[in-house]
Amino acid sequence: MGFVVKTVCGFLLAIGLSVSGHAQERAIVMASTTSTEQSGLFAHLLPAFKQVSGIEVRVVALGTGQALDMGRRGDADVLFVHDQAAEEKFVAEGYGLARRAVMFNDFVLVGPASDPADVRGQDIVAALKKLATAKAPFISRGDKSGTHAAELRFWKAAGIDDPAAKTDAQRLIDYRACGCGMGPALNIASSLDGYALTDRGTWLSFKNRGNLAVLVEGDKRLFNQYGVIVINPAKHPHTKTAQAQAFADWVVSPQGQASIAAYKIGGEQLFFPNAKN
């Protein structure tokens, strides 16, 4: 009897380990931006993918720079990010199989509705030039995210290579880098009646606006493209390439693109699919 019990227990344990291993194989880690997570997109998108694939996607929401670093270390199976130049460099270095366009929205500059720095308009560079001497608080994410990278490009175009520098020429900028996600940065801007660059998706889902309003929008330079990258198994053989590729293929498929387009807040569409199939 003892032998039978031990045999049955061993058989059940083996089944349990097999089921557990299978369950682990059906889950992947995706490193992505805080904007896709905090906007609520993934809460809408990922259940739809799981329903058709059986694959669970576990999101680690970081700035794009940090997400790319996760990919370089092999700590993620797939990336969903928005800094095209950095993404193309990542693929060129051999860390990703390919970069595929998924969707876009835009950046907007928000600030107090009274706009004491007088930046309201469509020109982001002109707006930052005014902010540089207005002594109005500017809240930067300062986290190497896609939004932070875009912001630094705009400051450079405005003639300021390092807005955080405390040189005499730049001393008037009240520049505050929080090293945080988009939601927390907007909370700080709201509490200080400051200015901030944000992606529109996070802005539309953000509730604690206080006196903040969109002041600069419509500049073609504010275009914000998102891409998906599967980690290269030649660099990191332990990553779950097949499952990650299944997600990348689905999110650019007609079904995935339709799911992205269907996500709205208050009747407003947050992201616009533009995959090239």
UniProtKB/TrEMBL annotation:
Database matches in Gene3D superfamilies: Periplasmic binding protein-like II
> Which residue intervals define the domain PBP in the entry?
19-254
Keyword annotations of the record: Signal
Read off the InterPro entries from this record.
ABC-Tungstate_binding (IPR052738), PBP_domain (IPR024370)
Signal peptide boundaries: 1-23
- Its protein name is Substrate-binding domain-containing protein
Q: Please name the Pfam families in this protein's record.
A: PBP_like_2 (PF12849)
